[in-house]
Amino acid sequence: MFKRTRHVIRGGLVLVCTMPTLALAYPPGSTVSTGSNPIRSTAGVIDMASTYTADGVIAAPSGQDLVLTDIILGVSPEDNACYCSGQVRLEGSDGELYGSYAIGISHTSNHGPSSRQYSGPSGVRIPAGISISLQMVLEARSCGSDRYDLLYTLSGYLAKP
């Protein structure tokens, strides 16, 4: 009997050790919307020589909320001697402000380019049917505003409202 118990325990250990774990980009359970693929992402560049705003960069479809879990922002100057600081605003088509993030870049010849990643398990919830625009608000700069680009990546998942 002792020998048999030993095999059962050893087999149980093997089973536990070989069980795969799932890596999910969204929380498991009923909060995530069912359907084809709940993951959403977008990326782009705002050339501040022509505009400070990118309209409709990502949207929550009707009937589903969008939870942004990762927001990556960066500023790229045309000249290594330029610096700037300001904020990037996430504004909804409903007129609501969904986020405001500080961003800046020092002289790249001294410190290199700058990017920031904002992420969190709770995320930024965008209600169903709302699209998000990004707006760069420069607060300080050493070069003309046309000398910078704002780079962005937004990702998240669809959820039940």
How would you characterize the overall build of this protein?
- With 161 residues, this protein is mainly beta.
- The chain has a single domain (2-159), classed as Jelly Rolls, CATH 2.60.120.
- It is built from two helices and eight strands, in the order H-E-E-E-E-E-H-E-E-E.
- It has helices spanning 2-18, 108-111; strands spanning 39-47, 53-59, 65-77, 84-92, 97-105, 114-126, 131-141, 148-159.
- Strands 1-8-3-6 form a four-stranded antiparallel beta sheet, with no helix packed on it. A four-stranded antiparallel beta sheet has the order 2-7-4-5, with no helix packed on it.
- A hairpin with a 4-residue loop joins strand 4 (84-92) and strand 5 (97-105).
- It starts with a helix and ends with a strand.
Which structural class matches the secondary elements? mainly beta
Mean pLDDT: 77
| Order of strands across the main sheet | 1-8-3-6
Instruction: For the record, give the distance between the C-alpha atoms at the N and C termini, rounded to a whole number.
Output: 55 Å
Give the structure's gist in a few sentences:
This protein starts with a helix and ends with a strand. With 161 residues, the protein is mainly beta. The strands form 2 sheets. A 4-stranded antiparallel sheet has the order 1-8-3-6, with no helix packed on it.
What brief labels describe this structure?
161 residues, mainly beta, Jelly Rolls, four-stranded antiparallel sheet, disordered N terminus
SSE diagram, text form:
Blueprint lengths: L1 H17 L20 E9 L5 E7 L5 E13 L6 E9 L4 E9 L2 H4 L2 E13 L4 E11 L6 E12 L2
Antiparallel strand pairs: 1-8, 2-7, 3-6, 3-8, 4-5, 4-7
